Amino acid sequence: MQKPTIPKGTRDFSPEEMTKRNYIFTTIKDVFHLYGYRQIETPAMENLSTLTGKYGEEGDKLLFRILNSGNCFNGLTDTELQECNPITFAAKACEKGLRYDLTVPFARYVVQHRNELTFPFKRYQIQPVWRADRPQKGRYREFYQCDADVVGSPSLMNEVELILIMDEVFRRFGIRVTIRMNNRKILSGIADIIGEAGKIVDLTVAIDKSDKIGVSGVNDELRTKGLSQQAIDHLQPFIALSGTNREKLTALRHTLSVSGTGLKGVEELEYIFDRLACTTPLRAGLEIDLTLARGLNYYTGAIFEVKALDVEIGSITGGGRYDNLTGMFGVEGLSGVGISFGADRIFDVLNRLDLYPAGSLKSSQLLFVNFGAKEEAFLLPLLERVRAAGIRAELYPEAAKMKKQMSYADAGKIPFVALVGENEMAQGKVNLKNMLSGEQSLLTPEELIAHF
User: Fold this and answer.
1) Taking the alpha carbons of 108, 112, 117, 118 in that order, is the dihedral positive or negative?
2) pTM of the full structure
C-alpha cells in the first residue's frame, strides 16, 4: 500500500504549530482592529476571467486552474485534442481557478457589492492563496496572506497608517525589520529618463529580481528584453543611489526634473515622510530602495516590502497603491492601497528566533488525572467551575495507568496536573502538582482557581 503524502509546496500543521499560527493571526487582527479595518472572506476559487490579466504574464503562469466539472473536453475539437496544446486546452476546459492573492478578489468584491458599501472601505482578510510556483525554502504553493486594504480614498494618509500598522505588528512580534519603500511613478519617470517608457513592465519585472540575481543579472535580463545598452547605462546611477532617505529624494528631484510623473512620485514619498515625522519614531527601519519594484502590474503609486533583519528569508510583508484595479472590472475612480503579511514566512521567522511570548500558545493549563468512575463524578462539577473561571483544563478520558496520564501531560506541555483520589474527595480538596518543579499543594477549589 502506497504511503500517503501531500503535494509539494504544502504543509500539515500540528496542534502545537496551529497554536503558534493562531497567535500570529490574532496579533495581526488586533492591530487591524485598532486602525478600523473590518473582516471579509471571499471564495477559494474565482472565475478565471476575474484572475487573468491582473498579475502580468509571469503571474498568469502561476495560476492554479480548475478543470470544469462534467465533461471538460466540451468545446474542444478533435484537432485541438490531437495537438495536446496545454494553453488551448486550459482556455476551454478551465473556467475557474484558485485565487493567487487576496487583492484581486477584494477588488471584485468591491465592484460586485459597491452599492452596499460606505467609502472609504477598510477591510482585512486572512485566508489561504495558491500559486503554481516551484517550491523552495520559504516559498510555498499554498500559504496564508493577511491583507489590509482601504479603497475609495486617494489620500496618502492611508499609506502613512499602513506603515504604522506594519511597524506595530512587528513590534508586537519582536521581529527586527526594515520596511523598504519606492513609488511606481518614480520607476515610470526613470523609464522616461532613460528613453524606454514603453518597456516599463520589463523594467520593473527585472529590477524586482535584483535581490536574487544581482545588478548584473538585472542588466542581462534587460538586454534580452530589448533595452539598449545606453538605456541600461543610464539606469545604473538610479539603482546605485545611496544616502539618507531625504538625500535620495533630493537627488531624485534633480534627476527626474523633466519627468512630471517621476516628480509626482517623489512628492508622494515626501508627503509620507513628512507625516511620519509627526509620529513617534518607527521601531522598524524605513528605507527608500529604487530596486524595489513589486512586479505586479496593478501597482501605480507607493510600494512597500518588509525584510527581516535576523533571518535569511524573502519578504515577509508587501503591498502598495493601486489606482486602476477596480477599473479592470468596469468601475473607474476607486483608488486603493493595501498591504499583505505573509503569515507562513512570519511563522518561520518566529520559530527560528524563538520569539513566542510565554502564555501566547494556548495549550491546556491543567489536567485532572482520572482514577475511576467515582472520581469522574466528583470532578465534572469542579471542571465546570474551573473552565467557567477561564482556566484551560481537561480531564483524562479514562482511568488509565498513572504513567500514561503523566506522559500525556508531558507531551501536551500541560504545566499542572490535579490529583483527586479518595482522600482528596473526603476533604473536598485537590492535590495540585507542578510538572516542572514537582512541587505539590493541597488546595480548595477556590484556592485552585485563585492559583491560576
Assistant:
1) positive
2) 0.85
Pick from 32, 22, 90: nearest CA to 61: 90
- Can you spell out the DSSP letters for 73-92? TTT--HHHHHHT-HHHHHHH
Residue 5, by phi and psi: left (phi above 0), alpha (psi -120 to 50) or beta? beta
Q: Which three cell numbers stand for residue 166?
A: 506594519
Check: CB of residue 306 under 8 Å from CB of residue 190.
Answer: no
Given CA atoms 23, 24, 26, 30 in this order, what sign does their dihedral have? positive
Predicted local confidence at residue 383, as pLDDT: 96
Quote the cell numbers at residue 3. 504511503
What is d(CA 89, CA 174) in angstroms, rounded to the nearest whole number? 49
pLDDT over 70 for what percent of the chain?
A: 94
What's the N-to-C CA distance of the chain in angstroms?
Answer: 49
Structural domains present in the chain:
15-63+100-353 (3.30.930.10), 366-451 (3.40.50.800)
- Whose grid coordinates read 468591491? 110
Instruction: Point out which residues pair with 130 in neighbouring strands.
Output: 142
Q: Tell me, what's the pLDDT at 3?
A: 92
How many angstroms separate the CA atoms of 337 and 154, rounded? 8
Looking at beta carbons, which pairs linking 410-416 to residues 24 or more positions away fall under 8 Å? 410/435, 412/363, 412/364, 412/367, 413/16, 413/363, 414/363, 414/364, 414/365, 414/366, 414/367, 415/365, 416/365, 416/366, 416/367
According to the model, what pLDDT value does residue 134 have? Answer: 87
Positions of the chain with pLDDT lower than 50, given as ranges:
none
List of long-range contacts for 48-54, beta carbons under 8 Å, 24+ apart: 48/94, 48/95, 48/96, 48/97, 50/104, 50/105, 50/108, 50/329, 51/97, 51/99, 51/100, 51/104, 52/97, 53/328, 54/104, 54/296, 54/297, 54/298, 54/325, 54/328
